[in-house]
């Protein structure tokens, strides 16, 4: 990227930031809008994590009561992760101690948010990470609440091991915490500003139709088969 | 002369020994520095992985109806359609497992009595099969632990499956129902059938709490 293109991008971002700031000071901006902004910030942060669903986690995080100590530990962990990853493009190039520290930081932040992370295979069975051999089966991470209720599933790809992608996820988690903190000021549950409709599609009608089709086809094939076997039996009996 | 030579050779011996010893010590230092860091981080990771984090504070309680967030799959009540002679159990959540239990409440939407849009979804081939026969003005009752929330169907809409205009936050109490459309479609239905309602009556939450 040339200096000129960097400058252009920087100017564009600055102009957009100014625009957003100006819009937020416009008349009609209310406390409700502020909580809406935080709600949107929470949704955006959760979307960065590339989970299969965000609605359960969105609701659950609002019920999490973080102490000041827990909150500052999350911030401290995130800053440390930034320090580790900042100067690398590939996590693989980091020294082993840094990789282990990153894993610990992520694990600790997940725990501080009162979540549990469980590694599972393609069939949904828990995976023992110590004995896991890459390539033998897919690996997914399930996020559950403290009672083990499934909230969301993360299906990591190689692209997620990219340093910047990883950093974006760690920072997104912190942004989510900040948004939740703002939302909790109202003392009320804040609904998602907008979301897709739940997926109510099922394979049931297709499978019933498929079953019906197979019965018809089988029946159609059975008739000539029965006639043929009867015909072939007659001379033998005669 | 001999003494001087002896002293010099002694010095050289120290230098000769000192250089490799220093290199060894430097090597050990590096191993110790990085090895200790790795060991320290591994020990800390193991501790993070094995120890349970006890939250400093209990779960947050909202200052409104449903102060405790229902867990996915938890029963919220029952939906009744008197005109269709249909009763449907309602659970928290709209993912696959929850929708097998009945109609699901979208976790990111408000709950009855919280002053927002309550979004309930269900399969067109199980709990919401009869929904296509619901007419404008028909009553829908959501029986919860606080009492009966009565709504009236006001309008119907068909939207694409990826629509983002229906499931939005609202600042007034209302119930919206969604299911797949067309009802008799073979395969993944491309659209969603939406039923908008208006609130007719609701219980006094404060009284119900007591």
UniProtKB/TrEMBL annotation, chain A:
Domain of life per record: Bacteria
Q: Which UniProt keywords apply?
A: Membrane, Signal, Transmembrane, Transmembrane helix
Q: Where are the membrane-spanning stretches?
A: 207-228
Signal peptide start and end residues: 1-26
Its protein name is: Cell wall anchor protein
Automatic annotation (TrEMBL), chain B:
User: Which residues constitute the catalytic centre?
Assistant: 123 (proton donor/acceptor), 180 (acyl-thioester intermediate)
> Where does the chain cross the membrane?
12-36
InterPro entries per UniProt = Sortase (IPR005754), Sortase_D (IPR053525), Sortase_D_1 (IPR041999), Sortase_dom-sf (IPR023365)
Upper classification of the organism: Bacteria, Bacillati, Bacillota, Bacilli, Bacillales
User: Which Pfam families does the annotation name?
Assistant: Sortase (PF04203)
Name of the featured protein: Class D sortase
Q: Which UniProt keywords apply?
A: Hydrolase, Membrane, Transmembrane, Transmembrane helix
Write down the species.
Answer: Peribacillus deserti
Any GO MF annotation of the entry = hydrolase activity
Please, which domain of life does this record's source organism belong to?
Bacteria
